[in-house]
Amino acid sequence: MNQSFKKYGTLLSLYLAQSIPMSFFSTVVPVIMRQEDYSLTSIGLIQLIKIPWILKFLWAPMVDHTSPSRKHYRRWILGSEVFYAMVIVLISFFNLSSDFTTIIVLVVIAFVASGTQDIATDAFAILTLKSEERSYGNSMQSGGSFLGTTIGSGVLLMAYYYIGWQALLLLLAFLVTMALMPVTFARLPLEQTTTEPKRRPKWDDGFSFFKQKGNLRHLLLLFVYYSGIIGLLSMFKPFMVDQGYTAKEIGMISGIYGTAVGAVFSLGGGWIIRRVKRTTALQIILLAGFLSSLFFVWKMHGQVPLWGIYVASSMVWGTYGMASVFIYTVAMDKVRKGLEGTDFTIQIVITHLSSLFLTIGLSKFANTYGYHGMYILEAHIAIILLILSRTLFRKVVEK
Prior knowledge:
The chain is mainly α. Helix content is 76%, strand content 0%. It is built from 17 helices and no strands. The two termini are 26 Å apart.
C-alpha cells in the first residue's frame, strides 16, 4: 500500500507541475482578451500557443532513445521542468500589455519544455504502473491536470487580481519547482525488467505507429473523442464574461469549482474503468457528454441564473474528467515496448490536435450563430458519438 501511495503521489505531483502554468497561460489571457472586447474567433486562436504540445511527437523518439530505464526518464523530467520554471521567471519581467508578442514567444518556448516533460512523465508512468494499476494511475494523471487547472485558472486567476503580473509569475515558477520534490526524493520500487535489452527506436518509429494493422478505428476514436463536449468547455468562460461575471467570479466558478469537480470525477472514472467493460465505460462517458449538451441547449441562453451556471460547470467538467481518464488508459494499452513515450505521446497529441481544430471551428460557429447554435450542434455530435460507441468503436476499446 505504501509503495502504491508513492507511485500515485509521485505521478500526481508531476502532472500537477506541468499543468499549473499551462492552465494559467491559456486561461488568464483569454479572459483578459474578452474583457478587452476581442472576438470569440480571436480567443479561439490564442490556443495556438499549445502547438509545441501538438508537435512533441517529433522529438518523443529522441527521449525514448536516450532513456533505457526509468531513471533516465526522470532526468528528462527534472531538466525540462527546471528550464520551464526559468522561462516563467523570465516572462515575469515583461509587461502583458506592451510586450504581448514577446510573452507569447516565451510561452511557446516554455511549452516546448513542458511537452518534453510530459513525454518523459508518460513513459515513466507506463514503466512504473502495473497493468491493473493503470486506471487509478491515469486518475492521478487526470486528477493532477485538473488540480493544476484549479490552481492555474482559478486560484492564480484570482491572485492576479490582487498581486499583479510579476509577483504571480514568480509564484508560478516556485510552484513548478516545489511540485518536483516527490519525484526527486521518492524511492520507488525497481522497475520490472527482462533479460532482453530495451529496443532502440529508429528515426521513423513515430510514423510507424500509424502503420499498425487494425489501428484505423482507434485513430478515428482519438480524433473525434472530445468533439461532443469541447465546444461547451472552451466557450464556457467567454459565455460567463458575456453574462457579466468578473474575472474573480469566473475563476471561482470554472477555475476552482469546475476543475475540482473534474478532479473528483476523474477518480470516479478510474473506478468505473476498473469495474466494468471498456465498451460500457465508453458509453457511460459519451452519454454524460450528451446529457451535458442537452442541459446547455435547455438552460444556457438569455440571462442564466447562478444555479444554472454551477450545474453547467459541474456537468461539463465532470464529463471531461471521466473522459480524460478513459482515453489515457486506452492509449496506454496501445503502446509498444521500448516506445512508451513515443506511442503514448502520438495518441494524446491526436486528441490535442483535434481539440484545437474543433475549438477554432466551434468558436467561429458560435461567433456566427451564437452560443445557443453551437450548443445545438454539440448535442447532435454527442448523439452521433454515442451511437458509434455501440457500433464502429465497440471493438476498439475491448480488452
